[in-house]
Amino acid sequence: MKRTPLNFLLLGPLSVRLDAREVHVSAPRQRVVMAALLLNANRVISVDRIAEYVWDDAPPPSAAATVRTYVMRLRQSLGEHASARILTRAPGYLLELGEHESDLGQFTAHRRRAAELAERGDLEGSSAELAEALALWREEPLVDIPSRRLRDVEGRYLQELRLQTTELRFDAELALLRHAEVVPELTRLVRKHPLREALVGKLMLALFRSGRQSEALDLYRRTRVQLVEQLGAEPGAELRAVHRSILSAHDRPRTPDPLKQPSTAPEATVATVPPAAWERSCWPSPAQLPSVPLPLSARSGALARLQHFLTTGTMPAGMVATAVVTGRGGVGKSALALHAAHAVRGSSVHGQLYADLGGAGRPLTARAVLPRFLADLGVPRDEIPEEESERESLYRSLTAGRRLLVVLDNASSTAQVRPLIPGSGGSRLLVTSRRRLADLEGARTLLLDPLDDAGSLELLGNIVGPARIGAEPRAARSVLTVCAGLPLAIRIAGTRLLERPHWSIGHFARRLTEAPRLLDELFAGDLGVRPSLDADHAGLRRTTPAEAGPAAVDPAAVDPAEVFTALGAAGACSVSSSRVAVMLGCPEAQAEEALDALVEANLLGAPTEGRYRLDALLQAYAVEQAQAAAVGRHDHPYRRAG
Fold first, then answer.
1. Nearest to 533 by CA among 485, 604, 608, 592
2. How are beta strands 15-18 and 21-23 bridged, if at all?
């Protein structure tokens, strides 16, 4: 069926054009709902998130029902054809939209084509595409949306996207020696954003190349004074480099012959591009992101937050916007991070680097990763320095000023990550780790929890099919209860059911609940829950005081691994610090410290109302540890203390 032509306009006052006529949505809160759906086009946005936008983070108890009413009225306002694009998808709604059916989608498409042309060395074409993208902006976006929260979050994102695109166009224009033409527009933007160092640097360069060296140096002096007075910081490395270049007259002022304007032909373009810019355009653009499974609507909120930070996160000069996705093994950290990385590829115009750092079981050092990254960035292998510090310096130099996305999966410590942080500029760093990496300066942390019931059911249904789930809903829920919301466990359970179509889900649920060793049932191919828990337990053993060296040992400290084994021997599903103190005959403060260490190692749930809990998987693993340590004897004090 042919779709009715639609055009949603978001880069200015919100409006909808349907079959060449404009549809006006007058109700203020319906406009908030429509803007939220548009900004999350083709992604599920939850009812809770929409309510946050509608009521500015203070939704009433009836918010969910009221949002559903607003969506119904919005559908009525848009008419039959347009409203059919708004789909109900748990836990909220999804607006189905083609790339060219909104000005934001068209804007993104122009940016993508501009990046592709720049990679091929066609700076003329790249600049034209960026100009087309910027021409789509009418006024300030979301100006007519009565939601402070939406304007603060999404409005800032859109404005930053516009500024970044403008900067990319200036880069192309300067590389094409059109410095005189860009001075007026750059001057206006620098007055509006006087502390945006990237714009200041471009204006300095344009002024200098236009024979206005004194004005360029005076601009640097004024900017430096403002930075020191308002932020207490000196100019960043990139702006200082432009200043040094002007002082040394390294980048000589150039005025192209007006009768010999750069041609759009590739060979003419090459001849007119300054050497440094041409070398950069020839650098390899690695694209190393692995493929990912289908996204889950249950993760849409976390995915949106991560994407938003990766595209708009700004840091002080000298720092790189860094996100850390953390949580227990098998909770889906890598899948979420890779979904976000693929979604923001358009903003990492110089490529994406990826490395699996191996986790705690087989950690890969930066010394092993750096040579590969350097080679991927164009350094001949025989020219990669042997000295580790020189490798790190070269890596920072190659990545400074570029827009790369670096994804480091399964990090076990900050020491693995620090040498792989790209040089300052527009790059982004995305890390996954079972540890919070709290000592990674300036990192934004996203804690990923296990899936809720709806998300678990969605994932299992994606694997075995909704019909099979619908035939045995109670048995499916029994399987998911055992899996405790852990995507790894659910995928394994789904895979086993898929491999054995003659099994009923009820039969498999009984196998899980009646198995003497539950974790033996949760294996499929090279996937298993036990290895994931082994890695957490191994990391716990490495952090015990007994292995920290004589100077760090507290003779009275309680070994967290011993506490975990004791919980397995007692068959506990929840416990308090006072009960553990009785079980081990130690002060309650020491018991609490050991329990907190187990929480940090993802072997125990965080306390609620003073009790620490073990889900079905952790209980089964604790019992195995108790059996292995032979602490389940009838006369053992742990058993008696229960």
1. 604
2. antiparallel
Reported residue count of the chain is 642
Quick one: tokens of 133? 């993208």
Dihedral sign (CA 50, 52, 58, 61): positive
Burial code (b: 16+ CB inside 10 Å, e: under 16) for 604-629 equals: bbebeeeebebbbbbbbbbbbbbeee
As a whole number of angstroms, the longest Cα–Cα distance in the chain is 98
Distance CA 549, CA 528 (A): 34
How many CB atoms are closer than 10 A to CB 120?
12
Question: Tokens for 340?
Answer: 């976000």
pLDDT in tens, 432-478: 999 888 888 888 999 999 999 999 999 999 999 999 999 999 999 99
Within 10 angstroms of residue 432's Cβ, the number of other Cβ atoms is 27
Angstrom CA distances, 217 to 180, 236, 265, 351, 499, stand at 17, 16, 35, 34, 70
Listed residue (441, 400, 397) closest to 417, CA to CA: 441
Residue 45 phi/psi, 5-degree rounding, is -115, 130
3-state SS, residue 587: coil
> How confident is the prediction for the chain on average, in pLDDT?
83
DSSP state, 450?
P
Rounded Cα–Cα distance for residues 5 and 541 (Å): 62
Q: How many CA atoms lie within 13 A of 475 on its CB side?
A: 18
User: Which 3 state secondary structure label does DSSP give 355?
Assistant: strand
Taking alpha carbons only, the member of 606, 623, 529 closest to residue 329 is 529
Q: How confident is the model at residue 313 (pLDDT cuts 50, 70, 90)?
A: low
Chain position carrying tokens 């300067």: 174
Closest CA to 16 of 88, 95, 69, 70: 95
187 alpha-carbon distance from chain centroid = 34
CA distance 140 to 142: 7
Please report, to the nearest 10 degrees, the dihedral formed by the alpha carbons of residues 246, 252, 257, 262 taken in order: -80
Write out pLDDT tens, residues 18-40: 766 677 787 889 889 988 888 88
Q: Which structure tokens are listed for 77?
A: 């306002």
Taking the C-alpha atoms of residue 293 and residue 114, their distance in angstroms, rounded to an integer, is 29
Helix (H) or strand (E) holding 519: helix 518-521
